[in-house]
């Protein structure tokens, strides 16, 4: 699976959009971009995934650049409960192997 | 409610005393996996199973055993626990075998294990 690079930490004011970047410059054509998050010591939670096109669901939006070398997870109206570590993962679909969580971005949403 | 459950949630034990952490999912998922999480090391996969009776080693399998006799259950067995197995353990499952959505993994709430 391709390696990802994320900022170590970010802050966001409550109610504002949180934009979390991820660099995956070595991504190959059959690798998807997945985002998970982990709220303190809880089990990781799936957020969203995409291949080429931008995606949106009830939790977030995922913007993937045209060359697919980077992506941005957008939480449109961050709340205090969105404080968590966010992981950007690229992987071949259904490879069966481990999700490579890396270090992720620690997002702090402040009042 | 669709979920992955783990038991126990907390366990303190002593070196050498065999223990089993259970994992069960009610989503008819094919794929199940165990991870451990340690400060500074992140989440690392211990074992995974692509289907019943099919298991394989992950990145850190030493000191652990698993079995997959039924689709819904994937217990993690520590035959002779040691202090370096003190960790936070997560079980995960996914439908697998189909489109992108089936690769989404669902995690249990975690089991915090302390080996003295």
Task: Note the topology.
The complex is a heterodimer of chains A (111) and B (116).
Chain A: E1 9-13, E2 18-23, E3 31-38, E4 45-50, E5 55-56, E6 61-64, E7 70-75, E8 84-92, E9 105-110
Chain B: E1 4-7, E2 10-13, E3 19-25, E4 31-38, E5 42-51, E6 54-57, E7 65-66, E8 76-78, E9 87-94, E10 106-107, E11 111-115
Parallel strand pairs in B: 2-11
Antiparallel strand pairs in B: 1-3, 3-8, 4-5, 4-9, 5-6, 7-8, 9-10, 9-11
Describe it.
The complex is a heterodimer of chains A (111) and B (116). Chain A is built from no helices and nine strands. With 111 residues, chain A is mainly β. In chain A, the strands form two sheets. Chain A has a five-stranded mixed sheet, with no helix packed on it. In chain A, strands 2-7-6-5 form a four-stranded antiparallel sheet, with no helix packed on it. In chain A, a hairpin with a 6-residue loop joins strand 3 and strand 4. Chain A is globular. The model of chain A has no long low-confidence stretch (mean pLDDT 92). With 116 residues, chain B is mostly beta strands. Helices cover 0% and strands 49% of the residues of chain B. Chain B has no helices and eleven strands. In chain B, the strands form two sheets. In chain B, strands 2, 4, 5, 6, 9, 10 and 11 form a seven-stranded mixed sheet that branches. In chain B, strands 1-3-8-7 form a four-stranded antiparallel sheet, with no helix packed on it. The model of chain B has no long low-confidence stretch (mean pLDDT 92). The interface between A and B is medium-sized, with 22 and 32 residues.
